[in-house]
Each structure stands twice: as C-alpha cells, then as structure tokens.
Amino acid sequence: MPLRAATDEERRRFKEGDALFEAIVRESDGLGPLYIRDSCAACHAADGRGPGLVTKAVLAAPDLAEQLLPYGPTERPYAVAGATKPLLAPQHEAVSTTVRQPPAVFGRGYMEAVAESELLRLEAAARGRTGSIRGRLHRLKNGQIGRFGTKARLATLREFTADALSGDMGITTPDLPNEPPGPEGLVDDKKPGVDFNAEQVNLITDYIRLLEIPERLPESARGRELFAKATCDQCHVPSLRTAPDFMVKALAGIDAPVYTDMMLHDMGEAFSDGQTEENAGPREYRTPPLLGLRFMATLLHDGRARTVEEAILAHGEPDSEARDSVAAFRALSEEERRELVRFVEAL
Questions:
Q1: Looking at the structure, do residues 177 and 262 belong to the same domain, yes or no?
Q2: Looking at the domain assignment, is residue 149 inside a domain?
Q3: What dihedral do alpha carbons 110, 44, 234, 271 form, nearest 10°?
Q4: Against a cut of 0.90, is the pTM above it?
C-alpha cells in the first residue's frame, strides 16, 4: 500500500511504478544476457522477502580471485539473448557458496528520509559505549553514507533500484549503462543500448519510496521495556527523525519507526559470508530494519533462523558485537523472553 498521506500525484506514480515492479521482463525488454530473476517481484513478492535469492561465491584464497572469480562473486544462473554460459561459482576446493535473502522493500522510504545528523549522532553514541556493541556508518567511496543493502553499500533508493535492475536482471539504465560482465564477453542483449530509461527507473524508485510500513499489531508496553532492557534498541533503534526537507512531504520531519541504526556491526566469524563490499568486511552487516517482520518466513541475511528467538540467540557468539545483548536476553525470565519475542513478532 502507498503511504497513507501520499498525494494524488504520488499515488499515480506509485501505481505506474507498481506495474513495472510486477512486470516480467522479456528478452525484447533487455533481459540478460545473464540474470538471476526476470522481475522485481520475483525477489520481493508482495514487496517482502523472497522467494528469489542470490548465491555468492566465497573464496578461501584471495590471491586466486582474478583466476577463479574474474566476473565477481555473484552467480547469475540464467542465460538468454544469445548467451549460453550462465555465471556459476567454479568447482574448486578454494570456492564455497553462501546464499543471501533479498530484503523486503516496504517502508524503505522512511529509511531514506532519516536525517544524516541522526545517523552521525548514533555513531558518536556508539563510540562512547562501554559494552560489546559498537558499530560504524558505512562511508562509501563517493563520500555518502550507505543505507541500503546487506552491508549498506548503497546510499539512495535510486541507486538501490538501478543496482538491482543491473545485477539481478541485466537491465541497463542511464545510471548503469553497461551489461554486467560474463564469461562470453557479451556487451548487449536483444534490446540494443540502454534497456530502461530514466523515467522507468524513477517510477520503480518512487514506488519503493512510497511503500507504507505494514500496519503493526498493538504494541506491548512491557515488550518494549524488555526490548530496551536487553539493549536490543541500541542497534534496532525504534525511531529516527527524518530530514525536514525530504522530497516526500509525508515523510519529512517525522519520527520514522524503522528499528535500525543503519550502521555496520561486526557479528563475528560465525556470521562471515566471505564478502567485502566497498569498505564493509565479511563479518560486518548493516542492522536490518525490523519492518513487517511477521511477514517473513526466514530471518537473518541468509535465512538461517526460522524464529525470532533463533535469530536473537544467533547473535550471541563470543566475538559478536551483540553478545552482551544476547546475554541480557538469556538473563530474562522465561515469561519475559516470550514477551520480548511477541513484541518483535508484532513489528
């Protein structure tokens, strides 16, 4: 659903962007030559998480990267538009694979709207903590602060959209006009030149930006208190103030209930996915927003957790920044743990 306070013009663009988001892209539209899924909705059904996923190659010997992974670590298992060789992880003793669940996309406009000063405030507060939780903002090479993606490597929803079109579907745009590289060296597809124009990218971006957070179940005051007692709210910050001049008036100058600090945290070796993205290392992950959690069948970046409690306990490895929070969770009574879990499940 669109933002409740969206204007008529925003609702019109939302509807047009929705159609593009749901549409199956064909070869004649520019699909491929290599791709992962053929529509945005194939990875974000009902704007949620999945069913599509991304497989990444993990290299145990970094010095072999150029030899074994010359086209990057991301598998693109389908080939069209003249391509015959999918991009798959090589069969080699130094290579393993990990999966990455796509994020839900509802409520992302709230995250984009958060004032940069809020993020800087949280980072400064993290430096002054005495417990295990620290965290840092992902400052990208272009000077911006990353907000989107598993490791916060993208700063805006426009970048998020163009990146997904390119990486997941092989759809070129004015933002990313070149096809992702592949083993056959193909530089175009069945639609010569740029596949999606700037307005198409803008419409999909506006659709995502204008998606409302799913209506939440009644909040338990006791659950919220326990959430704070276990210091879950140090990373999953319940609300952040948005910029007063944000482009969408309905999201400007409000308290955005995002439940994230958008910072990178070292989650320990058990969480390592072997991926380095910009300045984020294999053990670092951006705090995922707890938005629409009850609509997700699996949790954590790779879907390893099936329940909220499983996800919480997975944070507790001795080298994880979240270990103190998990210890505080374990110290709660059984009824208090159930109440905290119910609170998170209602978000």
A1: no
A2: no
A3: -150
A4: yes
Q: What is the pLDDT of residue 183?
A: 93
- The CATH code of the domain that includes 240 is 1.10.760
Residues 262 and 233 in one domain: yes
What confidence tier does 241 reach under pLDDT thresholds 50, 70, 90?
Answer: very high
- Distance CA(329)–CA(327), nearest Å, equals 5
* C-beta separation of 311 from 300 below 8 A: yes
Cβ neighbours for 9, distance < 8 A, ≥ 6 positions apart: none
